[in-house]
Write the structure tokens for this entry.
Amino acid sequence: MSQHPMKWTLLKAGFVTACLLFVTSCQTNIEATVPTAESPTTAAQSEPKQLKKVRFTLSWLLQGVDAPLTLAMERGYFAEEGVEVEFSRGFGSSDTAGKIAAGQYDLGFGDMYSMIEFNQKNPDQKLVAVAVPYNRAPYAIISLKDRNITSPKELAGKKLGAPAGDTPRRLWRIFADSTGVEPNSVNWVTMEPRLRESFLLKGEVDAISGFIYSMLPSLVKGGKSLNDLNIFYYKENGLDFYGNAVLVKESFLKENPDLVKSFLAAYLRGLQDTLKDPEAGLESVLAKGDQTMSRDAEKLRLKLAVDNFLVNPEVEKNGLGAVDPVRFEQSIQQTVQGFGLSQTPAIKEVFNSDFLPPLSERQAPAAAERKSLE
């Protein structure tokens, strides 16, 4: 090396220059990643939004009528609101009320009329409805035409079948009074919900009561069509009740108002989308269901709901999820009479609209925007 001093000098100079460049580069990179008040860290920017879990119970098995829930989940509406929904099947409105009151679920679907009775029996665990997606109740009595029951009055002296806790059955006395039937003139036969339609098909009862979208698919599967049935809707015979609502325990509502608001905002967006495109809603339900789910049955349930129970002039005026006070007051009074309750609750004790989105955000889609489910 002593023979090439110039070469060695150049090598040393190159080495020093490279080191300086390396150090300068490191300093630049460090300075570029130091968080400042004006520039948040990259890690903070990429951190996923923390979602709050909501435990939700359906009113029964997952069905086509649950499309607003599943479609809102599929399209990320709950996540946008900061909510993660975990849902489970239900076992009827009475069961729903008890489990929400016990804290097993945060919210759930159930009918407000069974809830009224629950609240009177459990004044320290009261529930309240915060949204009413179903503007009309699907309560009905169905008979086969070969039974020759062409009007409610002709139910007198017949055998009617339903589970013991069936809401239309429990409201029978009011229905009978409204239609001119002697309430005690019929003989009620009790069976498990899954056996109700088979009792009618086998001729063990003359008629059955229940939710139309629960009964009709099983009757169709049993070989019947609408032409084979006589259907008496409660809403057409003096009982203009609201359908299933979103229920929550009052104490949970007070502690988690924003969470409930977020849930309802996302759910009602799902309902709007289902009304616009019920086929997409149906597909979202089928995707969440298991292999035992029948596409034809769930399509029929959803079609019944979309065509009959979700949108009408009242909904177009007041928005999705709301109620008309005069109509609702009447249904509360009928419930108290039908269930034999001792007190008539105020509307605010049964339904609290304070947690619904603004009217502008929960309008029903215009008729021209609503597709039919064929």
Summary: The first helix runs from residue 5 to 33. The longest strand covers residues 52-57.
